[in-house]
């Protein structure tokens, strides 16, 4: 029963007409998702209060054999975990809008390792950015912390590379499908990550990058860590979307200061003015984790014994 329900979820999730809120309404009405396939376009429209055009698109997708064949093909190439599975990442179970489906490559054990710290920042970092990251993050990476980031240019890429160079652990969260590497210049990084680390996406593998996917995936980046640190960001940076999501999720938020002449740090300074924790050395992170470890340790322990990849 669970496997059939899981396949139905994966299938419905593939339709561009099926948003997460709509799928959640479907699950409330029919937890098995079996009866959804028996409804006409008109019934889908009426039962779930969606426009007929959207309902008809959903109906066509649900009864399209090619749609199902592409799912079966992808399941042969990629691993997947759904909200139904005991092996679903426990940290994401604590957020308001968890992904219903996660495709992944690499080592899923990283979902269950703590502490995990989300690292974000500008795609156009200053000359000092790498030095800041080496100074602040290398010691905790060497102590076993997991670094979570988004495989974008700039700070994200630095974070993943630093973790691997330090023989540490890192998770990359994509704003596209696993078969649509973005940016293209990170193809080599992608290959390295999938061999020894973990790459995840809530989008079907052939989904190309879209502008709105990146702020959407940021909730997963912040959700996987107990806290989010901003290395460098301008005041109108996309990184600050991740900060807002981290705050909504009850995560810690950290910012790294710099000279007021460095425009890439203007967003960090504003964050500190607004109450983010200033990080000037690794000890600041270690000390704060000491106060957080009990809370997150209990959450992780509730799920770790249940996993079954």
List keywords for this structure.
12% strand, 9-stranded mixed β-sheet, alpha/beta, 309 residues
Total DSSP helices = 12
Helix content: 40-55%
Strand content: 5-15%
What is the helix/strand order?
Answer: HHHHHEEEHEHEHEHEHEHEH
Query: What's the shape?
Result: elongated
Q: Find the structural class using helix and strand composition.
A: alpha/beta
Mean pLDDT: 93
- Which runs of at least 5 residues are low in confidence (pLDDT < 50)? none
Radius of gyration, in angstroms, nearest whole number:
20 Å
Please give the order of strands in the largest beta sheet: 1-2-6-5-4-3-7-8-9
- The beta-strand count equals 9
Major sheet description: 9 strands, mixed
Please report the distance between the alpha carbons of the first and last residues.
18 Å
Summarize the structure.
With 309 residues, the protein is α/β, with parallel strands linked by helices.
């Amino acid at each position: 029963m669970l496997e059939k329900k899981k396949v139905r979820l994966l299938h419905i999730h593939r339709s561009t007409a099926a948003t997460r809120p709509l799928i959640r309404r479907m699950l409330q009405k029919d937890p098995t998702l079996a009866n959804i396939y028996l409804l006409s376009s008109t019934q889908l429209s009426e039962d779930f209060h969606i426009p007929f055009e959207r309902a008809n698109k959903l109906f066509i997708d649900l009864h399209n054999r090619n749609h199902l064949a592409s799912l079966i093909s992808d399941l042969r190439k990629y691993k997947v975990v759904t909200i139904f599975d005991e092996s679903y990442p426990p940290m994401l179970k604590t957020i308001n809008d968890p992904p219903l489906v996660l495709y992944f490559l690499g080592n899923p054990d990283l979902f269950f390792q703590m502490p995990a710290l989300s690292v974000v920042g500008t795609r156009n970092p200053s000359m000092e950015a790498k030095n800041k990251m080496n100074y602040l993050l290398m010691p905790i990476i060497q102590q076993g912390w997991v670094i979570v980031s988004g495989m974008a240019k700039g700070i994200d890429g630095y974070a993943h590379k630093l973790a691997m160079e330090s023989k540490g652990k890192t998770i990359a969260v994509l704003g596209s499908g696993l078969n649509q590497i973005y940016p293209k210049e990170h193809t080599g990084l992608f290959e390295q990550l999938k061999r020894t680390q973990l790459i995840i996406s809530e989008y079907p593998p052939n989904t190309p990058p879209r502008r709105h996917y990146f702020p959407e995936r940021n909730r997963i980046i912040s959700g996987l860590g107990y806290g989010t640190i901003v290395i460098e960001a301008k005041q109108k940076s996309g990184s600050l979307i991740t900060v807002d999501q981290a705050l909504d999720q009850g995560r810690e938020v950290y910012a790294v200061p710099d000279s007021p002449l460095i425009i890439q740090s203007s967003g960090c300074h504003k964050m500190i003015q607004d109450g983010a924790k200033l990080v000037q050395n690794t000890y600041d992170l270690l000390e704060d984790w000491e106060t957080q470890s009990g809370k997150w340790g209990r959450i992780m322990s509730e799920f770790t014994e249940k996993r079954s990849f």
